[in-house]
C-alpha cells in the first residue's frame, strides 16, 4: 500500500508536540497525504498553539504532503 498506509496502522506514538510527531511520521514512513477528521479532543486547537497552523502547513507543503480535512 506504500504511502497510503495509515499512521494508525503503525505503532502508536505519544508526543507532546503533535505536529512534529506527524511530520516525523511522514518522513519516516514516506507518507504523501494526511487525512484528518474532526477529533473529539481539541487537537487542531492544541496543534495550532504548539507549532502554528501556518508553519505546519508550510512544512507539509515543502515536503509535498497533501492535507485533507474531513468535517
Furnish the topology, listing elements before pairings:
Blueprint: H1 18-29, E1 33-36, H2 43-50, H3 53-62, E2 66-69
Parallel strand pairs: 1-2
How would you briefly describe this protein structure?
With 71 residues, the protein is an alpha+beta fold. The termini are far apart.
Write up what this structure looks like.
The chain contains three helices and two strands. With 71 residues, it is of the alpha+beta class. A two-stranded parallel ribbon has the order 1-2. The longest helix has 12 residues, at 18-29. The radius of gyration is 12 Å and the shape is globular. The termini are far apart.
What's the rounded overall pLDDT mean?
A: 75
Largest sheet properties? 2 strands, parallel
Give the tally of β-strands. 2
Identify low-pLDDT runs. Answer: none
Portion of residues within helices:
40-55%
Sequence of secondary-structure elements: HEHHE
End-to-end Cα distance = 25 Å
Category from helices, strands and their pairing: alpha+beta
- Adjacency order of strands in the biggest sheet: 1-2
Count, helices: 3
